[in-house]
Specification:
By secondary structure, the chain is mainly alpha-helical. It has a single domain, classed as Growth Hormone, Chain: A (Up-down Bundle). It is about 75% helix and about 0% strand. The protein is built from 14 helices and no strands.
């Protein structure tokens, strides 16, 4: 009995090594999840604390340095304008490049940017502690702020990329607690160190504290911090970066230094130019977004950074809850840039109000200061009331 050719099994064609073959001849492997699609690996307590160390070190150092300014002025013979620069150049260096720091973390690895930023922050804090004059100190503070802008955005970005569900909620809660508590810790530590005459002048101990904290945080991050990054596009919006940097500088330089300099014409010119620069930056971001290119600040994320400026604590979790890991660095940078810019504006406005209230007194007394402080508090209360009314319009869910 013979078997028909139609029912006989067909031999499989053999493929010689190096012979050309069609793509359909290959057995395609089952699709696996890409880097951005893998489930979040989780952080755990040790890794979370190592991640939060960048926020803690930066905020503690900033708060302590603010308390040390009068002692710096007395020790180095600095003018009032130079003393204010010790604080404001750090804030400028921190706020202006922060979105770029978050984006670079997305592209080249958040652990790498974290470690580079922490190393720079520690180094320039050491330079600050040993600064022979006010010019060196101001330059070191600016570079420390830029270093902080590289490491701090990686905190929320790492949390977003590495956690989900209840673990993310816990991590965000600790992030908020760290941001709030670090200011108080920095003020207390700064006050204690200023009362101890070490290193020739008490203010040098304040920056030495940042050196110690930075070194410990660097070692902890080197051992514990996970390495995450975004997949996909690896382009960097240099035009948007420049526009945002110029816009923030045009806004923050006048409000931080205008009062000390007597509000020269160039300060008013910069203030007038800042909304134009922000508008040009925003149009450029929208244009890139609509053309399916990668903007520095994706417009959907910017709508969330705005909410953070009004009320930080309760909204952080909501703002990053649905952020995909690929956009974690951008979201973190936008959120914290808005926070720092709002803080800088708040300090500048409150200081301006205080100065205006005391302008009529040639030699202000304690009662004059009390009255001026009351005026500032009333204005702040009015702002808080306005923001509370605005919050009523937010979605209930």
């Amino acid at each position: 009995m013979t078997t028909s050719s139609s029912s006989a099994p067909r031999p499989r064609p053999s493929i010689r090594p190096g012979a050309p073959h069609r793509e359909s001849d290959r057995a395609a492997p089952p699709p696996g999840p890409g880097p951005a699609e893998r489930p979040a690996p989780g952080l755990g307590t040790a890794r979370l604390l190592a991640t939060l160390s960048a926020l803690l070190v930066s905020v503690v150092g900033f708060a302590a340095a603010g308390i040390a300014v009068p002692d710096i002025g007395a020790s180095l013979g600095a003018t009032a304008g130079e003393q204010s620069l010790v604080v404001s150049v750090y804030a400028l260096g921190f706020a202006v490049p922060m979105v770029l720091g978050g984006r670079l973390g997305d592209l080249y690895g958040r652990r790498r940017l974290f470690l580079l930023g922490m190393a720079g922050f520690t180094l320039f804090s050491l330079v600050s502690a040993l600064a022979p004059g006010i010019t060196v100190l101001i330059g070191a503070r600016a570079l420390a702020g830029i270093s902080a802008a590289a490491m701090v955005p990686q905190v929320l970005a790492t949390i977003t990329a590495s956690t989900q569900g209840p673990e993310r909620a816990r991590a965000v809660a600790l992030f908020g607690a760290t941001a709030g508590g670090a200011t108080a810790i920095g003020q207390v530590l700064g006050g204690v160190l200023l009362s101890v005459p070490l290193l020739g002048a008490p203010w040098r101990s304040v920056f030495a504290m940042s050196v110690l904290m930075g070194a410990l945080a660097f070692v902890a991050a080197l051992r514990r911090l996970p390495d995450t990054r975004a997949s996909g596009h690896r382009s960097l919006d240099l035009t948007g970066t420049s526009l945002l940097g110029f816009a923030l500088l045009a806004l923050m330089v006048p409000v931080s230094q205008g009062g000390a300099l007597g509000w020269p014409v160039w300060c008013w010119a910069l203030l007038g130019a800042s909304p134009v620069l922000f508008a040009v930056f925003w149009r450029w971001q929208v244009r890139l977004h609509r053309s399916d290119r990668v903007p520095l600040v994706p417009p959907p994320l910017f709508r969330l950074g705005v909410g953070q400026a009004f009320m930080f604590g309760p909204l952080v979790g909501a703002m990053i809850a649905e952020v995909p890991p690929a956009a974690a660095g951008a979201a973190s940078g936008v959120l914290q840039t808005t926070q720092q810019a709002a803080m800088g504006l708040g300090v500048a406005v409150a200081g301006g109000l205080l100065g205006a209230a005391l302008a009529s007194s040639a030699a202000p007394t304690a009662q004059d200061y009390t009255g001026a402080l009351a005026v500032c508090m009333l204005v702040q209360a009015a702002f808080a009331l306005v923001f509370a009314v605005c919050a009523l319009a937010l979605p209930r869910r």
